[in-house]
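sry for the spam today, last one i promise. C-alpha cells for design, 1026 residues
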C-alpha cells in the first residue's frame, strides 16, 4: 500500500482481516475461529489469529444471531469477547479500555459497506488498543461513553429495559454487553406476562460473565376502572440462574406462565386484526397520501418477522415500514431525478421537495401514528381496555380479568421474596391512593420515574405522587389527611379527578372511596408500617433508534472527576431527572495479599498515629437510599437543580429513511480526523526538537552546547525511555524470541520527546537565563545547591503537569513531583563529578561552564531517577499482567487436574501423567474435550514463557507459593507436550483455526527447551503433598 497521510498500513491490514471475518458464512466462521474456551487470549492463539479478528468474530456472533436455539453460541461469544478485551487492555484503565474496544468493534461491524468510516474506526481501534489514558478518554467522549471508575463501584443502573424476547431490538446477551459498555452495574429486564426459561438462562448467564447484577421483572396488565394498568413482579432471593430456573419449573409458576401466554396470544390476535385492517383500508389511505404502491401483508411472514419476541404494535409498524421501504426508495429516486431536471421551476421544486420530505419521514414512528388513526381505533383500544367477557367471547384471558388485589395475592403466594412495582403511566395521585388502598400493602414500590412514559407525557403528576409517597413513608397522618382532602376538594369543585380511562365511573363513586380512605388513615399507614413504599426508576429502553434517551441512569457523585465535569458542561446533552437519592460513602480497608496475618513490625507500625492502615488498600463503596421527587417533577437538560440522577446518554437523532442529505455527517468526520501514526510521531519529535534547538541557540555562549545541546537533550530522553522499557520487560534475561524493540512503544517515546523539548524553553531560557541569571543574579559558585533545587523542582511540576494532560493516574503524577526532590542530590553529585573531571582536564572556570549546562545536568539527574522509578513501574506493570495471565490459566490447569482425579479415583494421577501417551489415548476414547483442554493449557503456558515479558519471573514467583503436590501436578500436566503426533493432529483438526502454521512451528521448535526449563524450575518433589 502507498504511504497515506491519514491512515497506517496496519489500519488497512487490520480492516481487511475484520472484513474477512464479517464476510464468512456460519460454517466457514466455525472453521476459521475455534469455538473452544480452553485457549487463553494471551496464549498460543495469538500466533494463529490476531486479537482484533477474534474480537470481530465474537461481536459478529452476538449481533448476528437473534434466532432461538443460538443462546449457547452467544454466551460463548460473550465470554470470549470479555476475555479478549480485558487481556488486550494493558493499562491502568483496563475496564474503560475494554468498553471502548467493544464499542468501536461494534461500530466497525455495523459500518459494513462504508469503507471510509470503517477505516477511521479501524484507526481508532488501534489507537485505543494502546491503552494510553489520554487516548482512551478521548475515545470515550467520541463514542458518547462516560468514564467509569476502575474499581467498578459506580452507582449506575436501569430498572426497566427490554430485550428481543419482548419489544426490544437486542438479544439478551447483546443487551448485557451493551449495559457493561455503558457502565451499568444493575439491570432489571422486563418481560410481559411470561418468560421463556431459555431466555432467562441466557440473560442470567450473560450477566454473570460481565459482572452485571440482573433481575427479571414480569409485567402484568390488570383491570382498573375499565382500563389496564401495569404491575411489575420481581421475584428475588435466587443465588444463581439455576435457582431461578428451578423456580420457573414449579407447578404454580408454570400455571402462571401458561396464563401469561394466553394473555399474550389474545393481544397478538388483536394486533393481527389490525394487520387485516391495514390490508383492507389503511394501506390504501397511505397510497393516496404518499403516491406509492403498497402490497398486502401476510400474517405468517409478520409472525416470522417478530421471531422470538412477543408481538407488539411496534413490531407491526416496523413490519409495515420494511414492506414499504422499496416502494419509498423508488419514488424518492424518481422525485430526485425530476428535481435535477432543468425544466423544474421553483413551484415544481417546492412541490417535489415537500413530497420528498414526506417520503423521508415515513418511518416506524410515523407509521405508529398512522396506526392510531380512527380506522384502527376499535382494535387498538382493545389493547388498552380491560376485556369484558361478554364482548370478547370464550377466549377472554383470565389474567387480564383478574382484579389487582387477587392478582397480587396470587403472585405473592408463589414466592416469599418479591417486589411488586406499580407503573404510574396515566395515573393520577387519586388513582395511586386508590390502588395502594385496594391492594392492601402488596404494592412494595412505585415506578416513580419511567423516562419513556415521561417523554410521551404520561407522567404529569410526579410531584403530587411523590408527596403522597413521602406522606405514607413518614407516617404523617396530618399530611395524608391534607392530601386526601385536597383530592376531595378537587372533586367537589366539579373538576373530575384526572383519569384517562375510557370507562371512568362518575366522580361521586370516587369521592366515596376517598372518604372511606380518609376515615381509615391508620389502616393505610399500617400497610407500610414495617416496610416503606420504595421507588424504582428506569428508562423503558427498547434500544430502538429515534428521539429517545438510551439505557442507563447514573448518580454522578459516584463517577470519576472527569465524568462529573463532562456532565456539568453546558454542551452536555444528558437529561437530569427530578429525583434525589441520599448517598453515603464507605471506605473498607483490606489487607494486601500475603498480609492477612501481619508480622510484628507491621503491627507495631500500625499502632503509630497515622499508620493504622499500613499495608492495607482502601475500597470505596456507595450506599444509596430511596429516591424522592424534587424540582416540581420537572426534568432539566441544563444541569441539576436539586436532583442527582442523570441519564447516561443524550437523546437520539430523528429517524429518517436517508433520502435527504445528512447534516450531521460533517460533524462526525471533523471529530474523527485521522493522521498516520508514523507521521504523527515525526511531527511530535519535530515539535519538541525545534523549540529545544532554538532555546540552546539563544542561551548558550559555548559553541558545543549551542549546537549539540538539543541533540544531547533528546539523546538522554530517548535512551532513558528505551532502557526503561527493555529493563521493565526483562532486561538482559528477556525471552530469546523477543527483540529489544518489541518492548518499546515508539508513540510513547514520541510523546516524551515532544514534552521534553518544550521543557527546554521553560528550564533553559525562562528559568535558568531570564529568572535565575538575569533577574535573581545568582552566582553559580556560591548558589549551586539553590540553582539545582529550583530547576529540579520546576521540572518536577512541569512533568506532573504534562502527565495530567496525558491522563496519567494520580499516583504517577504525585510520584513525578517527588522525583524532583530525589533528583536534587543526584544533580549535585553529577555537578561535583563533572567539575572534578573538568579540573582534571585543566578547565579554567569549570563553574561557569557547568552553570551554562545546569539544565542539562538537572535533566540527566531527573532522567536517572525517572529511569529507576518508571523502570520499576514498567517492571511491576508487566509482572502484574503476567501474574494475571498465569493465575487465570493455572486456575484452569488445577481445575482440570481435579476433574481428572475424580475421573480416575483408583489411580495415582501424577504417575499416570508421567506416561502422557497412555492418558491421552484414554481421554481420546472417553473424554476428548479433556484431552483438548490438557494440551491447550500446556501450549498456552509455553507461549507465555517465550513471548510474554517477565513471564519467567512471574512463574517463578507463583511456583514459590505452590505446594509440592501442586508443583508436581503443574510439571506433569505439561509432559503432554512430548506427544508431537497428538498435538500436530489437534492443530490440523482446528484447535487454533486454519492458519496454524506459525503456532505449530513454534511448538515443534521450542517444546523440548521449554520442558527442560520447567524441570529446572519445578523439580519433582512432593513436600507437603499429603
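last one done:
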Amino acid at each position: 500500500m502507498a504511504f497515506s497521510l491519514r491512515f497506517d498500513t496496519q489500519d488497512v491490514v487490520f480492516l481487511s482481516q475484520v472484513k474477512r471475518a464479517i464476510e464468512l458464512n456460519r460454517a466457514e466462521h466455525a472453521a476459521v475461529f475455534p469455538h473452544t474456551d480452553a485457549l487463553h487470549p494471551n496464549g498460543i492463539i495469538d500466533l494463529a489469529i490476531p486479537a482484533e479478528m477474534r474480537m470481530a468474530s465474537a461481536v459478529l456472533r452476538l449481533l448476528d444471531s437473534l434466532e432461538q436455539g443460538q443462546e449457547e453460541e452467544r454466551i460463548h461469544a460473550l465470554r470470549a469477547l470479555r476475555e479478549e478485551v480485558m487481556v488486550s487492555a494493558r493499562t491502568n484503565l483496563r475496564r474503560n479500555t475494554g468498553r471502548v474496544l467493544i464499542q468501536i468493534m461494534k461500530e466497525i461491524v455495523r459500518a459494513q459497506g462504508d469503507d471510509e468510516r470503517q477505516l477511521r474506526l479501524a484507526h481508532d481501534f488501534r489507537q485505543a488498543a494502546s491503552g494510553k489514558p489520554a487516548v482512551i478518554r478521548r475515545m470515550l467522549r467520541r463514542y458518547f461513553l462516560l468514564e467509569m471508575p476502575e474499581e467498578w463501584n459506580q452507582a449506575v443502573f436501569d430498572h426497566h429495559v427490554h430485550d428481543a424476547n419482548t419489544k426490544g431490538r437486542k438479544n439478551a446477551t447483546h443487551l448485557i454487553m451493551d449495559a457493561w459498555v455503558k457502565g451499568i452495574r444493575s439491570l432489571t429486564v422486563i418481560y410481559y406476562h411470561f418468560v421463556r426459561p431459555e431466555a432467562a438462562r441466557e440473560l442470567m448467564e450473560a450477566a454473570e460473565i460481565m459482572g452485571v447484577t440482573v433481575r427479571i421483572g414480569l409485567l402484568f396488565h390488570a383491570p382498573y376502572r375499565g382500563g389496564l394498568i401495569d404491575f411489575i413482579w420481581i421475584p428475588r432471593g435466587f443465588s444463581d440462574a439455576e435457582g431461578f430456573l428451578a423456580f420457573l419449573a414449579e407447578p404454580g409458576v408454570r400455571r402462571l406462565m401458561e396464563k401469561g401466554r394466553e394473555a399474550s396470544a389474545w393481544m397478538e390476535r388483536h394486533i393481527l386484526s389490525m394487520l387485516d385492517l391495514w390490508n383492507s383500508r389503511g394501506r390504501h389511505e397511505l397510497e393516496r397520501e404518499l403516491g406509492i404502491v403498497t402490497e398486502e401483508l401476510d400474517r405468517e411472514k409478520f409472525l416470522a418477522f417478530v421471531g422470538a419476541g412477543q408481538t407488539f404494535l411496534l413490531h407491526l409498524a416496523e413490519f409495515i415500514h420494511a414492506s414499504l421501504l422499496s416502494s419509498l426508495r423508488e419514488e424518492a429516486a424518481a422525485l430526485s431525478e425530476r428535481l435535477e431536471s432543468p425544466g423544474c421551476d421553483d413551484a415544481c421544486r417546492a412541490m417535489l421537495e415537500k413530497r420528498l420530505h414526506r417520503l423521508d419521514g415515513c418511518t416506524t414512528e410515523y407509521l405508529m401514528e398512522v396506526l392510531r388513526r380512527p380506522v384502527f381505533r376499535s382494535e387498538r383500544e382493545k389493547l388498552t381496555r380491560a376485556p369484558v367477557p361478554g364482548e370478547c367471547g370464550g377466549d377472554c384471558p383470565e389474567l387480564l380479568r383478574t382484579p389487582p388485589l387477587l392478582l397480587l395475592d396470587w403472585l405473592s403466594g408463589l414466592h416469599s421474596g418479591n417486589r411488586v412495582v406499580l407503573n404510574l403511566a396515566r395515573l393520577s395521585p387519586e388513582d395511586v391512593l386508590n390502588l395502594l388502598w385496594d391492594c392492601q400493602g402488596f404494592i412494595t414500590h412505585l415506578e416513580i420515574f419511567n423516562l419513556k412514559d415521561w417523554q410521551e407525557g404520561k407522567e404529569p403528576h410526579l410531584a403530587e405522587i411523590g408527596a403522597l409517597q413521602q406522606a405514607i413513608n413518614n407516617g404523617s397522618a396530618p399530611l395524608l389527611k391534607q392530601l386526601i382532602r385536597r383530592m376531595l376538594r378537587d372533586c367537589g369543585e366539579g373538576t373530575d379527578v384526572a383519569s384517562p380511562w375510557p370507562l371512568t365511573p362518575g366522580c361521586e363513586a370516587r369521592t366515596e372511596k376517598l372518604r372511606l380512605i380518609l376515615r381509615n388513615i391508620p389502616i393505610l399507614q399500617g400497610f407500610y408500617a414495617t416496610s416503606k413504599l420504595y421507588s424504582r426508576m428506569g428508562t423503558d429502553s427498547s434500544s430502538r433508534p429515534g428521539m429517545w434517551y438510551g439505557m442507563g441512569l447514573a448518580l454522578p457523585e459516584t463517577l470519576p472527576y472527569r465524568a462529573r465535569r463532562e456532565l456539568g458542561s453546558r454542551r452536555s446533552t444528558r437529561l437530569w431527572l427530578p429525583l434525589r437519592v441520599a448517598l453515603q460513602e464507605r471506605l473498607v480497608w483490606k489487607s494486601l495479599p500475603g498480609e492477612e496475618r501481619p508480622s510484628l513490625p507491621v503491627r507495631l507500625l500500625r499502632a503509630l498515629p497515622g499508620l493504622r492502615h499500613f499495608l492495607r488498600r482502601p475500597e470505596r463503596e456507595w450506599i444509596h437510599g430511596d429516591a424522592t421527587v424534587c424540582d416540581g417533577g420537572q426534568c432539566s437538560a441544563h444541569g441539576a437543580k436539586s436532583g442527582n440522577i442523570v441519564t447516561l446518554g443524550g437523546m437520539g437523532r430523528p429517524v429518517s429513511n436517508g433520502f435527504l442529505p445528512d447534516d450531521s455527517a460533517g460533524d462526525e468526520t471533523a471529530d474523527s480526523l485521522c493522521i498516520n501514526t508514523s507521521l504523527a510521531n515525526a511531527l511530535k519529535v519535530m515539535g519538541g526538537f525545534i523549540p529545544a534547538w532554538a532555546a540552546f541557540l539563544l542561551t548558550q555562549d559555548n559553541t558545543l552546547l549551542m549546537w549539540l545541546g538539543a541533540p544531547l537533550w533528546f539523546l538522554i530522553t530517548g535512551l532513558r525511555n528505551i532502557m526503561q522499557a527493555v529493563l521493565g520487560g526483562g532486561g538482559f534475561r528477556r525471552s530469546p524470541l523477543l527483540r529489544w524493540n518489541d518492548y518499546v512503544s515508539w508513540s510513547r517515546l514520541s510523546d516524551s520527546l515532544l514534552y521534553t523539548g518544550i521543557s527546554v524553553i521553560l528550564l533553559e531560557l525562562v528559568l535558568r537565563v531570564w529568572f535565575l541569571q538575569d533577574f535573581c543574579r545568582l552566582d553559580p559558585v556560591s548558589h549551586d545547591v539553590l540553582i539545582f533545587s529550583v530547576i529540579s523542582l520546576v521540572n518536577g511540576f512541569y512533568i506532573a503537569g504534562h502527565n495530567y494532560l496525558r491522563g496519567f493516574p494520580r499516583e504517577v503524577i504525585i510520584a513525578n513531583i517527588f522525583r524532583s526532590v530525589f533528583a536534587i542530590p543526584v544533580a549535585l553529585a553529577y555537578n561535583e563529578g563533572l567539575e572534578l573531571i573538568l579540573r582534571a582536564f585543566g578547565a579554567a572556570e569549570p563553574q561557569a561552564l557547568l552553570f551554562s549546562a545546569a539544565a542539562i545536568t538537572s535533566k540527566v539527574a531527573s532522567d536517572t531517577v525517572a529511569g529507576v522509578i518508571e523502570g520499576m513501574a514498567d517492571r511491576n506493570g508487566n509482572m502484574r499482567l503476567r501474574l494475571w495471565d498465569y493465575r487465570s490459566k493455572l486456575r484452569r490447569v488445577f481445575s482440570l487436574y481435579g476433574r481428572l482425579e475424580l475421573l480416575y479415583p483408583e489411580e495415582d494421577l501424577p504417575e499416570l501423567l508421567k506416561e502422557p501417551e497412555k492418558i491421552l489415548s484414554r481421554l481420546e476414547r472417553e473424554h476428548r474435550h479433556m484431552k483438548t483442554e490438557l494440551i491447550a493449557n500446556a501450549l498456552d503456558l509455553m507461549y507465555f514463557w517465550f513471548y510474554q515479558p517477565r513471564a519467567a519471573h512471574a512463574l517463578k514467583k507463583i511456583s514459590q507459593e505452590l505446594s509440592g503436590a501442586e508443583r508436581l501436578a503443574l510439571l506433569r500436566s505439561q509432559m503432554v507436550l512430548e506427544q508431537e503426533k497428538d498435538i500436530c493432529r489437534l492443530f490440523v483438526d482446528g484447535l487454533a483455526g486454519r492458519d496454524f502454521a506459525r503456532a505449530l512451528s513454534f511448538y515443534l521448535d521450542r517444546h523440548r527447551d521449554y520442558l527442560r526449563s520447567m524441570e529446572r524450575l519445578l523439580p519433582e518433589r512432593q513436600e507437603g503433598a499429603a
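The chain has five domains: 1-143, 149-249+403-575+627-662, 261-382, 679-871, 904-1017. ok im logging off now
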